[in-house]
Amino acid sequence: MTLKATTSLPDARAFLGDAPVMAKRRVTDAGSSGETKQLRVAIVHYWLVSMRGGEKVVEELCRMFPQADIFTLVCNRDRISDFLKTRNIRTSFLQKIPGAKRHYTKMLPLMPFALEQFDLQDYDLVLSSESGPAKGIITRADALHVCYCHSPMRYIWDQFHVYRHGLPWVGRALMSITAPMLRAWDVTTSSRVDVFVANSDYVASRIRRFYDRDSIVIHPPVATDDFAVGKGKGEFYLYAGQLTTYKRPDIAVRACTEAGRKLVVIGEGEQLAYLKSIAGPTVQFLGHQPFNVLRDHLSRCRALLFPGTEDFGILPVEAMASGRPVLAFDAGGARETVSSPKVGFRFAEQTTEALLETMAAFEEVEDDIDPHAIRAHALKFSSTVFRDRLSSLIEQQLSTHGDRSADVFRRRPG
Fold this sequence. Notes:
This protein has 16 helices and 13 strands. It is of the alpha/beta class and 414 residues long. The strands form two sheets. Strands 3-2-1-4-5-6-7 form a seven-stranded parallel β-sheet. The chain has a six-stranded parallel β-sheet with strand order 10-9-8-11-12-13, sandwiched between helices. It starts with 8 loop residues before the first helix and ends with a helix.
């Protein structure tokens, strides 16, 4: 059977002009809280090789959109949560390279090519989780692309020289050659994003500086219900996290060594041997520990020492959810989380001396600090708050995006 047009050309154009209204209605309806399950959703994350802050965000996105497919450059299923293992995870061609699960960071020059090979044409909503390259994917023209930015890539921007100095000469030479091209690609692909969401005011300022884009700040989810206020007075200071140069664990180790204070260090990294060489007898190194051990130490410490600069820093909020104060360097996300003398202190200089002075000031008022008030403050950063704020934003953007799509069709010459 052959179908023939039964309208004149002007009438057909009028009909085509009305067609986007149908599409707009569909997108608008899909944006309502009861209809988002009808959307085809893709979650793009740089790599799934551990369970840190970025991966916790991916878990929450999957809870918000249980129908979503995950796209990632490299995945190590042995190091991700049981929940993420149940998801439909699609990896790039980098996954097939021998040693990719361990040496993925060395493949940075190949990552733009790998990202752009992902076929996302079937997806209405794309949520990219950016810290390594993730936002550079290519979406359908009428899809909505929301980028949750943990940080613009540190190793090609403000932390370039820190990372470069830590490499052997071959790595330094390769990074010097490829970094300018990666920066150009990173800036160019920022235009592929419809809406940037920053995990802190600090990251929002970096998005503005490097991409010249505005963003909406929604703090990342913290599983505050997984923590509880400990009993009794804290027994030791705690440092937890990667033992890398930019996190400055040496400041915590030196301060507690000089002051003769007990310090427990949980974590692993390239600085471990050096830290042990400068540590006194009051410092104990536990290496990598499972979550239940970390949670126990958070509930029993006098305070968490946080001498590095983080884009947000989930660990301080976890400590506060345990009712314990935080002594943090006055930079990055700590300015937004350790925001009251009721929950901790910030020190202005990233030095051992500044931390020692802060520890002395803290110990003078330590007995007056209310653990339950600290936990109440931490609840402002709960997973529930994150989901509510991000859901509202996505619904509003889906509706607005539908209006813009309709306007594009209306403006077509006819």
